[in-house]
Amino acid sequence: MAEKKNPTRVEKTSEEIIRFIISNKMLPGNQLPTEEEFLTWFEVSRGTLREAVKLLVARNILEIRQGAGTFISHKKGIPEDPLGLNFIYDDHRLALDMLEVRLMFEPHTAELAAVNATAQQRKEIAESPRNIESLIRRGEPYADADCRFHQMIAEASGNRVIGQLMYILHSSVSKNIEITLDTLRDKNTVFYHHKIARAINEGNVISAHWFMATHLNLLREFVIDKMEADGLETNKRHSPL
Description:
By secondary structure, this protein is mostly helical.
C-alpha cells in the first residue's frame, strides 16, 4: 500500500483559498482579495501564496487578469477534457455518440428553460440565434457562439448540474460543427435555434422540447450520412428518441 504523502505548504494554502471561496459563496467572475490581505490571513510567504494561486489557475478555479487582479474562473474548476475525449480518435463516432448523450437531456433542458428562465435570460437566448446567423452569413466561425447558445439554455434551466454538464459537453458541440460543416447544417442551425429561442421566450414547454429534439436528431442524421458516405459503419440509424 502506497504511503500517503503529506500535503505541501503550497497545497495547504491552495486549500485555504478554496475554503475562503466556498465560505464566502463567491461566484465566477468575482474578484479575490488582494495578495496583501491573503498574506496577513494565511501567514505564509509571498512565494508560497503565488504558487498556491498558480496551482488553482492550473485547476481552472482561478484566473489572473493582468493589471486587474485574481478572479474566480468561469470554468468552475472543470478540467479542459474531464471525460478524456481527446483520446477517442474516431471523430465521426465521437460526434455521433455525444449527440446521443445530448439527446438524452437537452430537450428536457429546453423545457426547464421555458419554465424557469429569467426575463434577462430569455432576452439573451432570443438574441443569440441572430448573432449566429450573422456569423454564418459572413462566413465566419460560429462554434463558440453555438456553444454559448446551448450553454445559456442549460443555465436558464435552473438546474446547476445541467449547467455544469453542458459546459463539459462544449467540446461535443464544436466537434459536431466540424463534422457536419456544410450549408445544410448551417440552415438547420439558424432555423431551429430561432424556433428553440422563440419557444423558450414564450414559455412554450412542448415546442421547446420538440424543436431541440428535432434539431439534435437532424444533426445526428447529418453525421450518419457523412459516415456512410465515407464507407464507415454506424449501426445507429434508429433514433434514440
